[in-house]
Amino acid sequence: MRALIQRVQQAKVVVNEQTVAEIQHGLLVFIGIAKTDSLDIAQKLLDKVFKYRIFEDQNGKMGWNVSQAQGNVLLVSQFTLMANTQKGLRPDFGPAMPPSEAKQLYDALVNYAHQNYSGVQTGIFGADMKVHLINDGPVTFNLEYNEL
């Protein structure tokens, strides 16, 4: 499972010209789900996202996590994060979990997020989403969790 996280001043998701989610100050988190992922893996990765210290603390260092910085989180499913790009000029989506299974896992992850963290918004799984953001920094990290 992969999470591409971006520290943002603001972010929103638009579907069919309607804003379906929007945050000010926080993290935009793109989630990629692999065939081998499980709810346990998803929960561990999300916990890491919420604990990851990439916001400025009182000393001007990256010492605070999103909660300490009083930020929000926007979760967006993005299967393209799981593409194998090592060969050729076309991405191979073979490592990605099939959509029906991925939706179940993503929905369970969203449910876990709402139960354990405040300030969580989400995009719509499988929708043609337009994601608008103002990256703060820019600050972007790729987090992975692999259970071997």
Question: Care to give the gist of this entry?
Answer:
The protein has 148 residues and is of the alpha/beta class. The protein has 2 helices and 7 strands.
Description:
Pfam families: Tyr_Deacylase. InterPro entries: Daa-tRNA_deacyls_DTD, DTD-like_sf. It is found in: Cytoplasm. One of its GO terms (molecular function) is D-tyrosyl-tRNA(Tyr) deacylase activity. Its EC number is 3.1.1.96, 3.1.1.-. The chain has helices spanning 39-51, 99-116, and strands at 2-15, 18-32, 55-56, 62-64, 72-77, 120-122, 130-144. Strand 3 and strand 4 (62-64) form a beta hairpin. The strands form 2 sheets. A 5-stranded mixed sheet has the order 6-5-2-1-7, covered by helices on one side. Strands 3-4 form a two-stranded antiparallel sheet. With 148 residues, it is of the alpha/beta class. The model has no long low-confidence stretch (mean pLDDT 96). The chain is built from 2 helices and 7 strands; from the N terminus they run E-E-H-E-E-E-H-E-E. The longest helix has 18 residues, at 99-116. It has one domain (2-142): 3-Layer(bba) Sandwich (D-tyrosyl-trna(Tyr) Deacylase, Chain: A), CATH 3.50.80. It is 21% helix and 39% strand. It is globular. The N and C termini lie close together (12 Å).
